[in-house]
Write a structure and sequence with these properties.
Blueprint: H1 8-11, H2 27-32, E1 54-63, E2 66-75, E3 82-87, H3 95-106, E4 110-114, H4 129-136, H5 141-157, E5 161-170, H6 172-183, E6 187-193, E7 220-225, H7 233-245, E8 250-255, H8 272-288
Parallel strand pairs: 3-4, 3-5, 5-6, 6-7, 7-8
Antiparallel strand pairs: 1-2, 2-4
Helix pairs in contact: 5-6
Length: 293
Amino acid sequence: MPADAKMSDIAGLTLPLPVSRRAFMATSTAAAAGYTLATGPVRADVIKTSAEGLIAGAAAVKASDGEMPLYFARPEGVANPPIILVAMEVFGLHEFIKDVVRQLGKLGAFAVAPDYYFRKGDLTQITNFAQLMPLVNSKPDQELFADLDATVAWAKAQGGDESRLGIIGFCRGGRTVWLYSTHNPALKAGVSFYGSLMDPPNAFMPKNAFDLAGDVKAPVLGLYGAEDQGISPEQVRQMESRLKDAGKTAEFRIYPGAPHGFFADYRESYRQEAAKDAWRRATAWFKKYGVLD
């Protein structure tokens, strides 16, 4: 598979533009607010989580070949909060991902979103898939694992509790959840929002989530849309069956009428009812498996 091929998670982003732009920010406003422009118009009613009561901001962690930027949030005055990794979409470390980090911080977590595409440049400034996809598709899985491991080590050194480690991810980050759950035995739980399952392999990503289902080490919750144009409900059901046959702990929810990206409140694909239910299930999952109190 060539590096610029359209993966199933990206195929799911192919949606018609809204008829009216009145409910969306001007391009300059969206850019100034820190949102990616690669997916088109940015909704005007995006969720905005304040940093009140949190210690939040940018930092950097030493990776194998440089300083990897990250964004974190943790509750003030709380010792040894659980660590939750936030695996981003293909669009870089933009405001939507940062807001998710703050939401998790409000729940008591030391949430960290590493910019593991930093070697490719600032992906938030790329506005079309033709430039974006060869970059993200050439990210080696082994390098990804090393970057996430380095992030966990950094959070632990900052006082986070590695014994209560979780991961949540969206789109390509949802795939990351599935794969990282096969890599790190310390992981307590994962939540994958519409993460790809059956993409064909390439030199950088030699196996997909379906191939590695038997190696999953942590309970994973999969949240998918019935109208996803890249990841079909049938694929989700096949993944569920394979995990069950392998004796793995996993649950799935497929939301009727929801497209790919239904949780992304900044995009036209956002579906409020599905997003609220999915977040409720995600937080309950982390509580059930000892990540969140």
